[in-house]
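seq:
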Amino acid sequence: MQLLKEGVHSGEGSGVIASSFRVMRQLLSRLEDEKTGEILVRDFHVPIPKQIVDQAAYTAQILGDEVYSKMPSLPAVKPVDQNLTELILNRTWRPALAITGAAGLPALQDAGNVLRPMTGVRVSLRVPPGCDAVRAGQRLKSLFETDPPYGAHVKCEIGQCAAGWSAPKMSPWLASSVDRVSEMFFGKKAAYMGEGGSIPFMDMLGKRYPKAQFLITGVLGPNSNAHGPNEFLHIPTGEKLTCCIAHVLADHFEKR
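struct:
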């Protein structure tokens, strides 16, 4: 995004030509409420099924503050909401914005007293399951490029578009089986929580087998460090989880 052909001294340009950073702030405010983090464009939202809301509330009761405390943050840094259920829904079923890179901004020690000719940012917009990622990308491009402030030259290039995915509603036999074996080995009914990351082949499987039942789980605790340089699994939890899956498969065989 560019306004100037080249940098000009801030004493000459300030108050005459808007800084490219100001324009960028205005463009991003079209997308996100900077005070709350809410994505303002309704095209990027989807209705959240009641079943999902109920599951999130149950999971929040179990996890408590661990919903956010597991994130490595500095002392006294607070989550964006005190409602734990809302935090779970935020990371799975609501769109969210992150700026993951920037261009046109010199390092602090190299910054001069000039208006820079351009500012660029890499925008990461996570969309929830059911939101068409390709269409969302085109909507985002139009949002940024249409009628830019001060007649600035704005170009939005769409990178990778990946759709979210949600498993179909569980059959009564599977839901009952999962609850039973969870109580058997972990002492509590099963809890469900979506993941903000992506497993692309699940979307492919879901489209290929729309009536299939899915039970997607793994060992992520206690203190397991998936995908890290010191990745490891908690063996006792892994053993219990393996027993749970074995019993669910046995229940499926009996059902047949």
